[in-house]
Amino acid sequence: MKIEIIRHGETAWMPERKYQGISDIPLSETGKNKLEKAGYSPKTVYVSPLIRAKETAFCIFPEAEQQVIPGLSEMDFGVFEGRSADDMADDPDYRTWVDGMCRGRCPGGESTDEFCDRVCAAFEDLVNEWISDEKETACPSDDPVRIIVAHGGTAMAVMERFSEEKRTFYEWYLKSGCGYILDTAPWKEKKQLKFLTVSNHNKASER
Questions:
Q1: H-helix segments, 21-111
Q2: Which of 52, 97, 93, 43 is nearest to 74 (CA)?
Q3: Tens-digit pLDDT profile for residues 27-47
Q4: Domain 2-77+115-206 of CATH type 3.40.50.1240
Q5: CA pair distance 106, 128, nearest whole angstrom
């Protein structure tokens, strides 16, 4: 079984380099126009509860049902949300967080470790469910790839913990509208995933 984890498209806050986190910011019209409808449609797409993920899933897979997985939401950046690094250059709380390699707890929000634990628990439950379903029915799913549409942080957390190919959290950065395609073959034995390739759901003119 294969899994694809896709990062949502562009929002109005992204060109301004503002932290979005759990702020429910929709895609911008530019972001919607950059995305391209896929050549196939899965029956179900698993999405973050935030609107930018839902809208991205609709742009790419308009015929698919959407199942919301709350644990796949982006990191809660607390008081940093809606502000850019430039806005907070002299903010002592922000400087402390950055000096700690952005791993500590954001005031009013999550730490990177708390976020990763939350995302990875939700992801692990999904993978175990999918594998169990295929085992019980003794036949492959109707969907050739299980699709998750969520956030850059979501993908980074999953890849840092579960990919056979080891990279740090920030080395798994993913551009908007792109995704990681993974193979679950190593999951049962090692609880790991084989990284296959990067997908791109942006129109050719926008890549």
A1: 29-34, 51-60, 92-99
A2: 52
A3: 999 999 999 999 988 999 999
A4: yes
A5: 31
